[in-house]
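cron nightly-structures :: item 1 of 1
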Amino acid sequence: MGGKGSKKSTTTAINLIYRLMRYPDSNLLVVRAVMNTHRDSTFAQLKWAQNKLGVSHLWQNNVSPMEMTYIPTGQKIIFRGFDDVLKLASTTVSKGYLCWVWIEEAYEIESEADFDKLDLSVPRGELGPGLFKQTTLTFNPWSEKHWLKKRFFDTPSEQVKTYCTNYLINEFLTEDDIRTFEDMKKRSQRQYEVAGLGHWGVAEGLVYDNWEVLEFDPDTLGKESNTEWQYKAFFGLDYGYTNDPTAFIAYYANPITKEIFIFDEHYEKKMLNSDIARMIRAKGYAKERIRADAAEPKSNDDLIRLGLSRITPSVKGKDSVINGINAILEYKIFVHPRCVNTIAELSSYVWKKDRDDNGVNQPEDCNNHLMDAMRYAFYDVRFFHPLSPAEQKEERRKAYYNNYAAGITGSDLTGGYI
């Protein structure tokens, strides 16, 4: 485990490329919670490692299907996601032995039972001479409540080796990177302990303790009970540039069940307004109402000029931060595993403390960019009044008889309520 910029993934990628080339019958399975997150993380990291070792010409790297092949021997690096655990557990290779597994961002694996299905299946069987079985997990330790802590760090085992890394040992970081962590240390000791030094995040003092990571399909949310229109999408945007990221968040909310399902995010520094507009259009949200930081009227006007006509300033006022937080605290929050920056902020967004170390009714103003965006968007949730199942039934009945009286027949009788 380790903090951000602690080269845990970099070291793992270099080690695995070297190791595969050293052992001709070995093969590697690389796993993340969601398959489509590999391309910009593990796949890119392993390509970087090949280049760093000067062996890129010996590797063939394919995106579709996503795999890497060591040309001299035909050994494979296979990429899979926990979004299909059964298929994942049945992964095999045609040549040699599947002896090593790398699980990147293991914190995203919510279910220990899902991990066990993989762990009991891969690697398996007898191996060739000189080979050994090993599973490597790399992750940020956002919360001490995660099953990883109890499983691997609190329960000693001869089969387990654990390490903690941090940015101080990363020779690949620039002076600007180091300065970011030093600034973090001054602004928030707690965030520095977790994101900087790689220590376990402590749950005490968190602003939001009403959340969990959950794998769900945003496209089918609620449709199994014909209540899909009770889940409405809301969008928030917080601006940043040099030191702070631009943060965009998308979630469904249901005021009846008091649930929020966070399904998309964007988190990036040095984005021009044209970059932000391009990103939102690419995600397909250009026609949506997006609540953006009211403190940036020029940026809001720019985005409207760039075609995002429904950009709306957030609502500011006395105690608006606390009131927004209190309203969100009434809901249960589910976060899709791919929203890794949202997970990180929820895990380290804490209340301020006074000089006597007593909590005060105000959150720390750091590590909160997505939290602010979530709060901006939540203002509109209060105006969303979905119908209960009984009210839905009554609306369908009214639509049927009104349309029947108007001479409408066929599937249009219910007026779109079915």
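cron nightly-structures :: done
The two ends are 49 Å apart (CA to CA).
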